[in-house]
Design a protein that fits this description.
TruA/RsuA/RluB/E/F_N; two-stranded antiparallel sheet; about 30% strand; alpha+beta; 9-stranded mixed sheet; 3 helices; EC 5.4.99.-
Length: about 180
């Protein structure tokens, strides 16, 4: 029977169950939060990013979620440095060219600051540098893709929260907790 777990990964947690290669490390992993045998992450989420991770015991589903050829939409809330211009947003909507090639177009809109949990440690606040929030949806999932895309258009990412993967979202899942889908 297929099991699907939706987990709200906190900041500074590795998206794997062990931290091999760094003997005696104090880096946090999924095993601190999820004690369910036989489930594995469908894709990764960087240590400095937060939000939805989908875990499953179904290898085919895992591949479908994480393989870019299936174009599974992933939505993110990104706090960026600066005030986005129409031109910057349009560049993201058309797709940008990164070192590893062009990205697919993203759905992007500027949003009001979302009602999120506090991050520990908090994002560094600077009075002289404005920030804004974007909602972006991509259908790829390259390494640090959203951060690299926003940086490419001169909007460095300060905080990144993956809100949804396909049909699943973070609604009602507190940081560090999970539920079955």
């Amino acid at each position: 029977m297929t099991r699907i777990i939706l987990f709200n990964k906190p900041f500074d947690v590795l998206s794997q169950f062990t931290d091999k290669g760094t003997e005696g490390t104090t880096r946090r992993t999924l095993s601190e939060f999820i004690d369910v045998p036989g489930v594995y992450p469908a894709g990764r989420l960087d240590r400095d990013s937060e939000g939805l991770m989908v875990l499953t015991n179904n290898g085919k589903l895992q591949a479908k979620i994480s393989n870019p050829k299936f174009r599974s939409p992933k939505s993110y809330l990104a706090q960026v440095e600066g005030h986005p211009t129409d031109d910057q947003l349009e560049q993201l909507r058309k797709g940008v060219v990164l070192k590893d090639g062009p990205t697919r177009p993203a759905q992007v809109e500027q949003i009001m600051p979302p009602a999120l949990w506090d991050r520990d440690p908090p994002v560094r606040y600077r009075k002289t540098v404005p920030d804004a929030w974007l909602r972006l949806t991509i259908t790829e999932g390259r390494n640090r893709q959203v951060r690299r895309m926003t940086a490419h258009v001169d909007l460095p990412c300060l905080r990144l929260v993956r809100w949804s993967v396909g049909e699943w979202s973070l609604d009602g899942i507190a940081p560090g907790t999970w539920r079955d889908a």
